[in-house]
Structures are given as C-alpha cells and as structure tokens.
Amino acid sequence: MYTSGSFKMMAKISMRNTRYRVYFTSAIYVAVVTVMNYLINQLVGMGEFFNRFYDMINAGIMPGYSELLHMLPSPEIWELLLALALSFMINFLGIGFAGYCLKVSRGQEAKISDLMCGFEFFGRAFVILLLRTIFVALWSMLFIVPGIIVAIKYSQSYYLMFDNPGMSGYGCMRASGNLMQGFKSFYFIMVLSFILWHFLDSMVTMLIFIPLVSVYLLPYMGVTYAHFYNARIGYVAPQHEQDRGGDPFDM
C-alpha cells in the first residue's frame, strides 16, 4: 500500500537519477515565471498598491474600505490584455512543467524544451484549463471546501492528456474524476504534507527576494504527484526508458 512518504521517496530517487539536472530546468522555470509575475504586477499596478498599503500600515494608519478602493490601480486596456496574456503563458508553462516532471518520474529523457509541451497540446490543454477554472470557481462560491474537492478531482487531467493523444480535453477531465474516486482525501493529505516547505519558501523569498527554495520544492512536488498518477494507472516503465532523466542542455 502506497503512502505519501513512499511517493516522496520515489520522487527523490527519480530526481537523483537525473544527476540533479532537474534543478537546472526548475531554476529556469522559476526564473521565467518570477519575471512574468513581476511584469504582471507592474502592468496592473498592484506593486504600487501594496507599497502604499504597507507604508500606511508602517505609519500606524489602517486604511478604510473607501481608501482602499481609491488606492486600487486603474491600468489601461492594453496593460490588462498584456497581463492576461502573460498569465495565460504562465499557466501553459505550468502544464509543461507537469509534463516534464512526469517524464522524470518515469526515467524518460527530459529536456528544457519540455516546458513548452503544453503548447503542443494547445486545444485540449486550453479546454482543460478553462473548464477547471470555471468549475473550481463556481464550486468555491458555495464554500472553499467544494472548490478544493473539484480541483483535486480534476488534478490528473493533464497527465491523462499527455498519455492519451486521442482523448478530448473534457474526456481527460472525466477520466481524472474516475481515477480520483476514493483517493481525494489521500491526495489532499499528500498535498498538505508540503505545507512546511511552502512556509520555508515564503520566508526565504521574503528575506532575500529570490524564490530559492522553489527550485527544489517545485520538482519535488511535481515528481511526487506524477508518481501518484503512475501508481493509479499501473504504469511500469519499460527497461529501455531508464535513461536517467536526459540532458537538460539538449534543447
């Protein structure tokens, strides 16, 4: 019987088998996403909003509701559209990173270019992204718990998309729902087991303004989740695929 600990141990072994080159790819992913998030904050003006808010708090002033509304930024339409496009790209890079972690978990050749694989499945990936966002948002309106349950229910959609070229986006979501029957609480506990890592990541980022821990944490989580998926579908890696993770410098 599998446990969260066993999946984590398998993830560490898989990451070690890449001769730690997985961290190089992760560093590139973290750097690109960090820059994109910074650009989004600059475009919509949220950085300036939080700076003004913190200045008021440090001065001992608690802004009221009307003051907060007055402080909210008013970006131009083109700024909003560009921020939306960057946010869209971040989501697709996240899909690509999930595909990269899946390859690492299976001992397959994994390259930096795999971070772009989400765009190779653009149509189906977009359907999954859109429907997941809508479903999670709608259920979250009732209460946060149903939203979390729905997010977990469809958590395997992208893995199924990678493994099943002929399956539609909605079909991947339905298959994910079937795959997660009876395992939602297990998956939730597994996700929750990384909470101290998230806390450490936040503290380090606040201190040095660099998401250094994320370079280790993101592949650790991603490969752990991929091993869970492999176990659920009964995946067994062929002998010829044990090439120890590939060379990230091979673009």
Overall description:
The chain is globular. It is mostly helical and 251 residues long. The longest helix has 29 residues, at 77-105. Helix content is 73%, strand content 0%. Residues 242-251 have low confidence and may be disordered. The relative contact order is 0.16.
Largest sheet descriptor: none
Would you tell me the structural class of the helices and strands?
mainly alpha
- If you compute it from the alpha carbons, what radius of gyration comes out, rounded to the nearest whole angstrom? 20 Å
Q: Return the average pLDDT rounded to an integer.
A: 87
What's the assembly state of these chains?
single chain
- Into which percentage range does the β-strand content fall? under 5%
Give the tally of β-strands.
Answer: 0
**Which spans have pLDDT < 50 for at least 5 consecutive residues?**
242-251
Distance between the termini: 38 Å
Shape: globular
* Count of individual helical segments: 13
Listing every helix as H and every strand as E from the N terminus to the C terminus, the arrangement reads HHHHHHHHHHHHH
Helix content: over 70%
Summarize the structure.
By secondary structure, the chain is mainly α. The protein contains 13 helices and no strands.
Sequence-ordered SSE layout with sheet pairings:
Elements: H1 4-17, H2 22-44, H3 46-58, H4 65-71, H5 77-105, H6 117-120, H7 122-142, H8 144-153, H9 157-163, H10 169-179, H11 184-192, H12 195-208, H13 214-233
Characteristics:
251 residues; 13 helices; disordered C terminus
